[in-house]
Amino acid sequence: MDQYIIKGGNPLVGEVEIGGAKNAALAILATAIMTDETVTIENLPDVRDINVMLNAIEGIGAMVERVDAHTVRINGSMISNLTVAYEYIKKIRASYYLLGALLGKYKKAEVALPGGCDIGSRPIDLHLKGFRALGAAVDIHHGLISAVADTLRGTHIYLDKVSVGATINIMMAAAMAEGKTTIENAAKEPHVVDVANCLNSMGANIRGAGTDVIRISGVERLHKTDYSIIPDQIEAGTFMFAAAATRGDVTVKNVIPKHLEATTAKLIEVGCEIEELDDAVRVVASKPLHHTQVTTLPYPGFPTDMQPQMSAVLAISEGTSTITESIFENRFKYVDELTRMGASIKVESNIAIITGIEKYTGARVSAPDLRAGAALVIAGLAAEGITIVDDIYYIERGYESFHEKLESLGAQIEKVSTEKEIQKFTLKVS
Ligand code: UD1
User: Fold this and answer.
1) For the segment 276-326, what is each residue's pLDDT rounded down to a tens digit?
2) Terminal Cα distance for the chain, rounded
3) What is the pLDDT of residues 85-109, one digit of tens each?
4) Whole-prediction pTM value?
5) Which residue has its alpha carbon closest to ligand 1 atom 19?
6) Which of 45, 112, 118, 174 is deepest in the core (most CB within 10 A)?
7) Number of other residues whose CB lies within 10 A of the CB of residue 198
8) Selection from 276, 324, 279, 275 nearest residue 302 by Cα
9) Residue 124 Cβ < 6 Å to ligand 1
């Protein structure tokens, strides 16, 4: 089993390039099958979740040609199978985007129902509510969701809760429905806008993405496009917090600073200096950091996907901080691991109360999920001594060349898989 071994204590210094947004890419790959023409997608992150999604797309009979690590061509003209198997959903929930894409294009789709996941129970009732409102008959039997319609008809849909997944899935189906659809209380995340832009470049007619009312005029057919995915705001934010935790000076490049405003605001509150450039953000953490309060919220609020990384910083910032997790019910699983590294964090319901300590001490810890895994790496980079992070499989789902990028900023980190490699690293750094 692969692990990261880290000798902490080096401030991260330098520049790092951010890749394409994983969560935008997962949905955009699904939209690519909605035309019979060839779609080229660029700036694709080369991470495990994306590769699973590409397998799922091949699994329904679409042609997938990997041009290079970050570019793929997809042709959906040969799709022969409208059922997406459980093996894909089990690995990535986001393969449910094929439900909206297939339903829009073929008016029929079957996708295995996703189960719970590492950060809590994650219902998809709003996705199904949207499909039903568009006129599809939606059934769940033998673990499969089946959605079928003679005709999808545009309608007015109000989402009871702001949901990224439901907004995108409904938007995809509605893009090829008859007439006009309005989605109210829509998610405003940058990747919702990116998916809408990609669909529009394929001939769809979607307005208002990025606001809470999205208006879609259905079209009969979509066509080819060449589309480049937006930068990953969560990858960028993770490096920004790593810079803060190690009291470093890092410029994250190839980002859209506007998408990072909530993260930037919190870093300024704790005492970092931030310089915003056109497509880069520099984080300088030269002074002692102090406490703050954070609540996760839908965009433009503070992202739940940055919550564990923010905790990793607050745990070594002076004073008492609180983090309120308002999106997912089980997103504090990393707290016990940070505690093993000396952190003082108490969780009461959905609030973590963090009393800042001076320093982490390196320990052996396990990544409980993707973003929590990144938070443990951040703690390891700031810790005194050696940290080993197990289960980095989770981290590799969403971060491309994570340890190489950190190494290029001066971190002492390696990917290892044997006791001998651990000993070799320990000798090297001691
Ligand atoms: C997406 C992101 C995930 C991020 C999350 C919130 C992808 C692949 N994943 O997940 O990384 O943490 O947005 O920014 O893009 N809900 C319902 N019913 C539904 C759908 C959602 O009750 O039908 C609830 C969820 O349980 C949660 C909240 O709505 O409490 C927000 O979830 P949602 O925005 O849908 O998250 P995902 O799209 O699954």
Assistant:
1) 999 999 999 999 999 999 999 999 999 999 999 999 999 999 999 999 999
2) 24
3) 888 888 888 999 999 999 999 999 9
4) 0.97
5) 124
6) 174
7) 24
8) 324
9) yes
CATH number of 3-19+231-429, picked from 3.65.10.10, 3.40.50.720, 3.40.630.30, 3.30.1480.10: 3.65.10.10
Catalytic residue among 78, 117, 213, 277: 117
What separation in Å is there between the alpha carbon of 274 and the centre of ligand 1? 29
* Sign of the C-alpha dihedral computed for residues 129, 131, 132 and 133 taken in this order: positive
List pLDDT tens digits, range 57-78.
Answer: 999 999 999 999 999 999 999 9
Q: Which class in CATH covers the domain with range 22-228?
A: alpha beta
- 140 is written with which tokens? 């769940």
CA of 78 to the centre of ligand 1 (A): 31
Alpha-helical regions (H) of 109-163: 125-133
CA of 209 to the centre of ligand 1 (A): 17
Ligand 1 pocket member 304 (CB < 6 A): yes
Per-domain boundaries in the chain: 3-19+231-429, 22-228
- Closest Cα to atom 26, ligand 1: which residue? 122
Q: How far is the CA of 425 from the centre of ligand 1 (A)?
A: 39
Ligand 1 pocket test: which of 161, 167, 324 has the largest number of ligand atoms within 8 Å of its C-beta? 161
Q: Is there a common fold for 3-19+231-429 and 22-228?
A: yes
Q: Give the pLDDT confidence of 380-417 residue by residue, as tens digits.
A: 999 999 999 999 999 999 999 999 999 999 999 999 99
The reply to whether 198 belongs to the active site is no
